[in-house]
Amino acid sequence: MTPSVPRRLRTAVLISGRGSNMMALVNAAQQSDYPADIRLVISNKPEAEGLRRADAAGVKALAIDHKDFETREAFERELDAALNDHNIEFVACAGFMRVLTNWFVARWDSRLINIHPSLLPKYKGLHTHRRALEAGDTVAGASVHWVVSEVDGGSVIDHETVNITPQDTEDSLMERVLARELILYPRALATAAKDVLARQL
Ligand code: GAR
């Protein structure tokens, strides 16, 4: 008997910009035993650098411009249709800078994760590094969490920490946290994907 090939979760990554986290996921998924297969990258911004990077890596890359739609939900219905057209089972947001409606979150319930540049539950929303510095924190970091209707509110799958030094600026902290994100996200997606695959057994 030939050994059975482990199933990989058909995964899409949603981006809005440079796509460094997305590329970390694409690179991790080059390993045949990684539990997720990155089949599709979608950006709400057609000019996103990440679209070019995904395409160059041989991953199908699509732009769905949110400005072409009158409501958030109309945009998300198009997004949902594209995910379904590509037979996607799981969605990882990686620098996707649109707030998702309850409609989309319910539709992808327990199949939708996000990376956020703070140690959640601290600093939900924007300007996380600036807020950590202003608060005098000595530790910052990033978290990957399940997406629920409250923005950045779902349970944390995994996180990475970075020590804040007295010399740190918003930019230096952002750079060091991003370096940890690129290690964190592939690990957290693997955890989440194994969890989903185990639920399907
Ligand atoms: C990352 O730092 C990510 O954590 C953050 O945007 C950056 C995207 O960079 N996400 C958020 O702020 C979500 N609220 P990338 O496009 O190079 O991966």
From TrEMBL:
Catalytic activity, EC: 2.1.2.2
Pathway: Purine metabolism; IMP biosynthesis via de novo pathway; N(2)-formyl-N(1)-(5-phospho-D-ribosyl)glycinamide from N(1)-(5-phospho-D-ribosyl)glycinamide (10-formyl THF route): step 1/1
Membership in a protein family: Belongs to the GART family.
Gene3D superfamilies: Formyl transferase, N-terminal domain
Active site: H116 (proton donor)
Reactions mediated catalytically: N(1)-(5-phospho-beta-D-ribosyl)glycinamide + (6R)-10-formyltetrahydrofolate = N(2)-formyl-N(1)-(5-phospho-beta-D-ribosyl)glycinamide + (6S)-5,6,7,8-tetrahydrofolate + H(+)
Lineage: Bacteria, Pseudomonadati, Pseudomonadota, Alphaproteobacteria, Maricaulales
Organism encoding this protein: Algimonas ampicilliniresistens
Gene, per the UniProt record: purN
Binding of N(1)-(5-phospho-beta-D-ribosyl)glycinamide, residues: G19, S20, N21
Formyl transferase N-terminal domain segment(s): 10-189
Protein name as annotated: Phosphoribosylglycinamide formyltransferase
Superkingdom classification of source: Bacteria
Keywords of the record: Purine biosynthesis, Transferase
Signal sequence, start to end: none
Function noted in UniProt: Catalyzes the transfer of a formyl group from 10-formyltetrahydrofolate to 5-phospho-ribosyl-glycinamide (GAR), producing 5-phospho-ribosyl-N-formylglycinamide (FGAR) and tetrahydrofolate.
Amino-acid positions noted as binding (6R)-10-formyltetrahydrofolate in the UniProt annotation, renumbered to this chain: R72, N114
